[in-house]
Design goal:
The protein is an alpha/beta fold. It contains twelve helices and 16 strands. It binds magnesium ion (MG).
């Protein structure tokens, strides 16, 4: 992959979605950073960013793992690409990529570079699976799907060819690089991506939701505490009237502890014992909901947010169901999500195990953060 330069187009500044899609983090990283990661992992040895006044400051702060340069974007996409091409001193292969297509995989980038090395170009594209029709005065014509291609990026070329195509082409009339390459007399070679969504461009709110979902991280948590006399029973922040309570350094809220561990796991932030050691007097009889709030604060500090939690309490008695809605409300509020995104279930063990014999209460949870 020697001599591969990538042009990363960050000059969009689109506000069609009500926020800047290139600068708003998706699960902790912006589209620009995600596209950069894929290009570098896919084999780009140098990056040229094209920026607009709105994206320049952000791009200047990026810690790029390979040599990089920043150039001013033009009035159109084609002008931006031309500016970038003209400032390349030496390259064999140039990969041109729209930052808004941030779900591209390193494998796709690599394939397009290999195709350009072997055949002169590697234009990433999708096949059309929907029926497409053309409306005209006389009615509707169904187009032949096998002749239709959804053009994507990266579009990768031999440097000398694409530079010539841009310098000689009519930049006013094109929306992608392949059109100019064709106009210069070269035959394009396509690299097809798998599936419709694999290389989706962030254009609509639905694309944004898809991107968020595809970067969701999951974590699991489990906890158990001994049931003893003379202690309060607190589950999910709710004090439940019962003849026994859970023993622990904090309030021993086993449900909240399992959820905290699931969240920390999903966010890659360690575990509850590391964050709130039970050797630390500060956490003696601590309110576990306050600990949960602190965990959520740290998650949000890492540019992530809680998406969904599902938990199961394992105990013989007391009955959990009458208190589940109250737990849901308290936990949801602490995690900055709606109560519908918190699921609290309970099960018994039919008299078996320590839970069944009333010696302890356990809880397990799974959580997702985006
Ligand atoms: Mg615990």
């Amino acid at each position: 992959m020697s001599g591969t330069v990538a042009i990363l187009l960050c000059a969009g500044g689109s506000t069609r979605m009500g926020f800047d899609k290139l600068l708003t983090p998706i699960a902790g990283k912006t589209a620009i950073e995600r596209s950069l990661d894929a290009l570098v992992s896919g084999g780009a040895m140098e990056i040229i960013f094209t920026v607009s006044p709105s994206t320049r400051a952000f791009v200047e702060e990026i810690d790029c793992p390979v040599p990089c340069r920043i150039v001013e974007g033009g009035q159109t996409r084609a002008e931006s690409v031309l500016h970038a091409l003209e400032c390349i001193e030496r390259a064999d292969i140039v990969a041109i990529h729209d930052a808004a297509r941030c779900m591209v995989s390193p494998e796709t980038v690599r394939e397009s570079i290999l195709s350009a090395e072997a055949f002169g170009s590697g234009i990433v594209a999708g096949k059309v699976t929907d029926t497409i029709v053309r409306l005209n005065e006389t009615g509707v014509t169904t187009l032949d799907r096998s002749q239709l291609i959804r053009m994507q990026t990266p579009q990768t070329f031999r440097f000398d060819r694409i530079l010539r195509a841009y310098q000689q082409g009519d930049l006013g009339r094109v929306t992608d690089d392949c059109a100019l390459y064709l106009a210069a007399g070269y035959e394009p070679r396509f690299v097809f991506t798998e599936g419709e969504a694999a290389n989706q461009k962030l254009t609509t709110g639905a694309d944004w939701q898809l991107a968020l979902a595809s970067y969701a991280h999951f974590g699991t948590g489990y906890d158990t505490h001994r049931l003893v006399e003379g202690r309060k029973l607190v589950l999910g922040g709710v004090e439940i009237p019962f003849e026994k309570g859970l023993l622990g350094h904090s309030d021993a809220d086993v449900l909240t502890h399992a959820i905290i561990d699931a969240l920390l796991g999903a966010a890659g932030l360690g575990d509850i014992g590391r964050l709130f050691p039970d050797t630390d007097a500060a956490y003696k009889n601590a309110d576990s909901i306050a600990l949960l709030r602190e965990v959520v604060r740290r998650i949000e500090e890492n540019r992530l947010r809680v998406s969904h939690v599902d938990a199961t309490i394992i105990c013989e008695r007391p009955k959990i169901k009458p208190h589940a809605a109250a737990m849901q409300a308290i936990l949801a509020e602490a995690m900055h999500i709606s109560p519908e995104s918190v699921s609290i279930k309970a099960t018994t063990t039919e008299g078996m195990n320590d839970e069944g014999r009333g010696l302890c209460i356990s809880a397990s949870a799974i959580a997702s953060v985006v």
